[in-house]
Amino acid sequence: MQYHIFSPYRVCPLGAHVDHQHGLVTGFAIDKGVDLWFDVLDGSKVTLDSETFSGHVEFDIATPSLVKQGDWGDYARGAKFALQKRFKLKNGIAGTLKGSIPVGGLSSSAAVLIAYVMAFAKANSITLEPFEVMKIASEAEREYIGLNNGLLDQACIALGKKDHLLMLDCESNEYRLIPKADNMPDFELGIFFSGLTRSLMSSDYNLRVAECKTATWLVQAYENIPLKEQGKTFLRDVSESMFKRHRDEMPPRFARRAEHFFSEHKRVREGITAWETGNLEWFGSLSKASCESSIHNYECGSPELIAIYNAMLETDGIYGGRFSGAGFKGACIALVDPAKKESIEKSITEKYLAQFPQYKNSFKVFFCKSDDGARFI
Questions:
Q1: Domain that holds residue 227
Q2: Statement to judge: residues 207 and 140 lie in one domain
Q3: Are 104 and 364 in contact (CB under 8 A)?
Q4: How far apart are CA 222 and CA 212, in angstroms?
Q5: Could you report the per-residue pLDDT of 248-261, keeping only the tens digit for each?
Q6: CB under 8 Å to 310, separation ≥6 — which residues?
Q7: Which of 278, 236, 179 is nearest to 15 (CA)?
Q8: Which CATH number fits the domain that encloses residue 293?
Q9: Disulfide engineering: 258 pairs with which of 25, 74, 194, 215, CB 3.0-4.6 Å?
Q10: Whether 102 and 48 share a structural domain
């Protein structure tokens, strides 16, 4: 019997770059993502092919995965690694993986990891709730892949629900799925891919995480609060009032990282109110403000992404938006008026390619809708 898992990509309109500091985040699962078709095997062999990546992957699910191989199969090995910490695995799979849109910034790595966790669990008669899938996939990405992420990506992908905004508190792991208000205008999600591919492992992602933790240490030191090791230190550990007392004493780089965290915390809270009351204009303006802080306080973004964002600001029919994902290359996302999709695509494309004509063949525009989380089809 062949099984089919759909694991969606995700977008985060508010709550940028704060999940790894135990902040508040929001997000949608979308109707584009990763498909994994697989058969359960009697033995322990795993064989994987991909319509997206070249090469064939093969390994034994019953033996430990201790060393990354440096290929796309590492995500499957990472899923095995995290599951093996909890369960005995003995049955492998023969699977084929396919991504629906070839863009960065939509957490395709998290979508792939979640698909593998679900597939390996199914093959070994392991029952997992979506929240458990989320935690295992996040652990795989941190401990095996080596990306010091939070829970945002996995939460949206595992817990998402069509026409609902996910709000997750990354400190308590409490979450809400907030339905779209009846009076909210129709919208879709625009994805504007810069044409630049990216790998978070080769970006400044982990450096930004370390800078946030250093900012926490600085505030705690000024407040005479005992310090913990960096792996157990988060900006959520200190209050905004503590930060404000010492902002001018801090090296500017670290003060900016903390400023982004605390201002984004406020934007998420306001964004929840805007969403619940159906005020899409307000919600969109907060997403724009989030991107401005990402540029000036968190200091991520590339010239290409900033050009797309500026084009979005000048284009009618866009309620708001920001860099997607870590914001170093990848894509921008926006909440858009469906009636103006054609003119939006034309405007963004013309403005962007006027500055970066070298991406004529790789720049892409997609429109999508919110969707349910990862599931068997």
A1: 188-369
A2: no
A3: no
A4: 16
A5: 999 999 999 999 99
A6: 351
A7: 236
A8: 3.30.70.890
A9: 215
A10: yes
Choose the catalytic residue: 153, 237, 337, 371. 153
Same domain, 141 and 196: no
Q: Is residue 375 part of a domain?
A: no
Q: Indicate whether 377 belongs to any domain.
A: no
**What confidence score (pLDDT) does residue 102 get?**
65
- Per-residue pLDDT reduced to its tens digit, 116-171: 999 999 999 999 999 999 999 999 999 999 877 778 889 999 999 999 999 999 99
Q: How many domains does the chain have?
A: 2
Active site residue 248: no
Phi, psi of 223 (to 5 degrees): -90, 0
At 192, list the tokens.
């504007």
246 and 141 co-located in one domain: no
Q: Which of 179, 211, 240 is the last residue of a domain?
A: 179
Q: What is the pLDDT of residues 282-330, one digit of tens each?
A: 999 999 999 999 999 999 988 999 999 999 999 999 999 999 866 567 8
Q: Which residue has the higher pLDDT, 103 or 119?
A: 119
Shared domain for 334 and 269, answered yes or no, is: yes
- H/E stretch holding 276 reads helix 252-276
Q: pLDDT digit string (tens) for 331-369?
A: 999 999 999 999 999 999 999 999 999 999 999 999 999
- Domain CATH code at residue 47: 3.30.230.10
Per-residue model confidence (pLDDT) at position 325: 66
State the CB neighbour count (10 A cutoff) for residue 313.
12
Residues whose CB is less than 8 angstroms from the CB of residue 130 and which lie 6 or more positions away in sequence, other chains included: 158, 159, 373, 374
252: CB partners within 8 A, 6+ apart:
none
pLDDT of residue 199: 47
Contact indicator for 179, 163 with CB cutoff of 8 Å: yes
CB 345 within 8 A of CB 89: no
Question: Do 101 and 21 belong to one domain?
Answer: yes
At residue 302, the 3 state secondary structure works out as coil
> Are 217 and 172 in a shared domain?
no
Q: What's the whole-number average pLDDT of the chain?
A: 93
- pLDDT reported for residue 66: 74
